Amino acid sequence: MRLFIAVNFNNEIKSRLVQIRDRISAQSLKGNFSRPENLHLTLVFLGETPEDQVPAVCSIMAGAQRTLSLRKFTLDFAHTGCFRRSNKELWWIAAEKTDPGLGVLAELRRRLSSGLLAAGIVFDKRPFNAHITLGREIKHPAPIILPREKITAPINRISLMKSEHISGVLVYTEIFALELKQG
Ligand code: ATP
Ligand code: MG
């Protein structure tokens, strides 16, 4: 199964993200825009993983939680931008580099990485880039203009997600979660 560890958002944050997504979409000729329920931040991408490794992934997540004694925290998103590939763009919104919450996430990612490495579980080791994908394959006739706005997202849980295409629709399903303690 195709797995990743992610931060999901509550409905209020998702609707604010959708407003930005829709501003990009309104200025685009075409694009594949993220469905509201799919808006997330990937912490670790495992990719295709044998089903019998899932319990080990869950216990590595739980172990990281115990060691770090993770508390609920917030992440500020204000920085929108894009990656360009050929003549299409992928638009994202990123956590502010100076955000203390990003330090918490980076520490969690280090813990998860060392646990996964020790267990011989494959994952993507490229540097962490804390962003939420708003849309891909975007083409637009003129520069996209977005208002500068800060979204402070409460982070209450960390989720192990399964990714699949069901009847051509990209669906993410939470299969395990770490509930963070009250801050
Ligand atoms: P698609 O089906 O179009 O690929 P997707 O990229 O959203 O959609 P997945 O490929 O399953 O779905 O990826 C799940 C999450 O992991 C997404 O946030 C994606 O950006 C991220 N991701 C995918 N591949 C990698 C990778 N090699 N390294 C890091 N993150 C990745
Ligand atoms: Mg992908």
Which secondary structure elements does this structure contain, and how are they paired or packed?
Blueprint: E1 2-8, H1 11-26, E2 30-33, E3 40-48, H2 54-68, E4 73-85, E5 88-95, H3 100-119, E6 131-139, E7 151-155, E8 157-166, E9 169-179
Helix pairs in contact: 2-3
The structure holds adenosine-5'-triphosphate and magnesium ion.
Give an overview in words.
This protein is of the alpha+beta class and 183 residues long. It has a single domain, classed as Cyclic Phosphodiesterase, Chain: A (Alpha-Beta Complex), CATH 3.90.1140.10. The chain has helices at residues 11-26, 54-68, 100-119; strands spanning 2-8, 30-33, 40-48, 73-85, 88-95, 131-139, 151-155, 157-166, 169-179. The strands form two sheets. A five-stranded antiparallel sheet has the order 2-6-5-4-7. Helix 2 crosses helix 3 (100-119). The termini are far apart. The structure holds adenosine-5'-triphosphate (ATP) and magnesium ion (MG).
